[in-house]
TrEMBL record:
Major localization listed first in the record, in broad terms: membrane
Source species of the chain: Rhizobium rosettiformans
Single annotated GO MF: phosphorelay sensor kinase activity
Family annotation (PANTHER family): SENSOR HISTIDINE KINASE YKOH (PTHR45436), SENSOR PROTEIN QSEC (PTHR45436:SF1)
SUPFAM superfamilies registered for this protein in UniProt: ATPase domain of HSP90 chaperone/DNA topoisomerase II/histidine kinase, Homodimeric domain of signal transducing histidine kinase
Transmembrane segments: 160-183
Protein name as it appears in the record: histidine kinase
UniProt key word S-adenosyl-L-methionine: no
């Protein structure tokens, strides 16, 4: 059933119960007809028995009118046999060896007793009628036995059965045809939808807008939302490719020029200097590649929404501890504090790691160049957690505090080999969590505040 087509599945689900119901109904109808025919035959048998008994009574035991029996037999189809036993068990008239009533049968006077039996090897239905005669010539109990072969009745039953089967077959066959084509017609909107989707080109990710039956709407809504996410992912990917191509072209061209210059160096010292600068440019290009990939990864993950309830205090404190251990040698003091009651945060731990890596890297590069102090603080409120990273370096001028989050923006172009993507990554991560990233005024140096809602919507 699992692997059946929708059409076959619906067809089976409808036709099987229909066959069952039609079968039961036909069987019940057949039984009812059988009962009715039995009653009719019994009534006729009784009528014959009564007529005979009256006839005997009137003729006071004389022979039965042959003509009457003849008429009855013709009317009934099956031959009728009879036997009359007079008072004292004496044989009056009729056929010998009537079928015996089943042992222990209680035959009451005036009340016909019906039973099935065999007579001369043929199936018969019998009735026994006992009546008290009070005639001058005939006095006492008289027994009238009438029996009749049941071949006509069996034929009637067979006819009824065949009729039932024919009726059942017709109903089921026509229902099957109606259902099979009806279901196909009913499923047409689904096929139309499938056609419409299959005719699309791979870059056509517009939402499906055609009319669809109410049952299919959730499916189409889900598909549309998938299309939307795919379109966004495509957009991000193509932006990444064009960014990457654009940004990598210049440094690579400069490496090529420097390498050409190095080849034609007049002496070894110049050669060393030029090779050294090639190495620096290559490092910067490597950093740029890494940051571009990181930006792309963050965007890709934010589309997949890999959020989980995480212990953000444990996550960040572990990161800070390893940072502090390494930077201890560089005369850098690191402080870590938590304010408010810590709560689990619905976040993507990989993104949080990436965000912290960029903030710590910046603090190290620009704020803590000659030693100093880094303070990291987590402060929890009812709805959000604020992650503050503050160094005591030169800080960022007020007019640049927003722009530092722009892609490829660097405040001091001559300094270091950054590529201006670190804070853009931080901002993207905060946004993916439904939060915000800001650079705020600080009396010490640069202060970054990332606010993340505990449960992003
Ligand atoms: N803690 C800080 N103190 C002073 N200036 C900072 C600090 N953090 C960032 N900046 C300034 O903001 C600019 C943007 O930072 P961002 O991290 O986005 O880029 P980057 O560090 O230059 O490059 P990368 O992508 O390699 O990190 C930096 O170039 C720097 O001038
Ligand atoms: Mg940076």
């Amino acid at each position: 059933m699992k692997r059946l087509s929708l059409r076959s599945r619906l067809f089976l689900l409808l036709i099987v119960p229909l066959i069952l119901i039609a079968g039961i109904a036909s069987y019940a109808r057949f039984q009812e007809a059988e009962r009715l025919s039995e009653t009719l035959y019994d009534n006729t048998l009784l009528a014959v028995a009564l007529t005979i008994s009256r006839d005997v009574a009137i003729s006071e035991g004389d022979i039965l009118t042959e003509q009457l029996l003849e008429e009855l037999t013709t009317a009934l189809g099956d031959p009728v046999y009879y036997r009359i036993t007079g008072p004292g068990g004496g044989f009056v008239t009729g056929y010998s060896d009537p079928p015996d009533a089943p042992a222990g049968s209680d035959i009451q006077s005036g009340k016909p007793f019906f039973f099935d039996s065999t007579y001369l090897g043929r199936e018969v239905r019998s009735v026994i009628l006992r009546e008290f005669l009070n005639q001058p010539r005939l006095q006492g109990w008289m027994t009238v036995e009438v029996w009749q072969t049941v071949s006509q009745r069996a034929a009637l039953s067979r006819d009824l059965l065949y009729q039932s089967i024919a009726l059942l077959g017709t109903i089921i066959l026509s229902a099957a045809v109606i259902l099979w084509f009806g279901i196909k017609l009913g499923l047409k909107p689904l096929l139309d939808l499938q056609n419409a989707i299959s005719l699309r080109t791979p870059d056509d990710l517009r939402p499906i807008r055609r009319w669809i039956p109410i049952e299919l709407r959730p499916l189409v809504q889900t598909t549309n939302s998938l299309f939307e996410r795919l379109a966004k992912a495509f957009e991000i990917r193509s932006a990444f490719i064009s960014d990457a191509a654009h940004q990598l072209r210049n440094p690579i061209a400069s490496i090529v020029t420097q390498a050409e210059a190095a080849v034609s160096s007049p002496d070894e010292i110049t050669l060393r200097k030029r090779v050294d600068s090639i190495a620096r440019s290559a490092r910067a290009t490597g950093r740029l590649t890494n940051q571009l990939l990181s930006l792309e990864r963050v965007r890709g993950r934010s589309l997949r929404a890999l959020f989980e309830q995480a212990d953000i205090v444990a996550l960040i404190s572990a990161r800070i501890r390893s940072f502090a251990e390494v930077q201890l040698l560089n005369d850098i003091a690191v402080g870590f504090a938590v304010e408010g009651a810590p709560k689990p945060v619905l976040c993507d731990p990989v993104m949080i790691e990436e965000m912290m890596a960029n903030l710590l890297d910046n603090a190290l590069r620009y704020g803590l160049r000659e030693g100093g102090e880094l303070a990291v603080m987590l402060s929890f409120s009812e709805e959000e957690v604020a992650i503050v990273v503050e160094d005591d370096g030169p800080g960022i001028k007020e007019e640049l505090r927003e722009r530092v989050f722009d892609r490829f923006f660097r405040a001091d172009l001559d300094f270091g080999d950054g590529c201006g993507l670190g804070l853009a990554i931080v901002a993207d991560i905060a946004e993916a969590h439904g939060g915000s990233a800001r650079c705020v005024l600080s009396p010490k140096g640069a202060r970054f505040e990332i606010r993340l809602p505990l449960e992003p919507h």
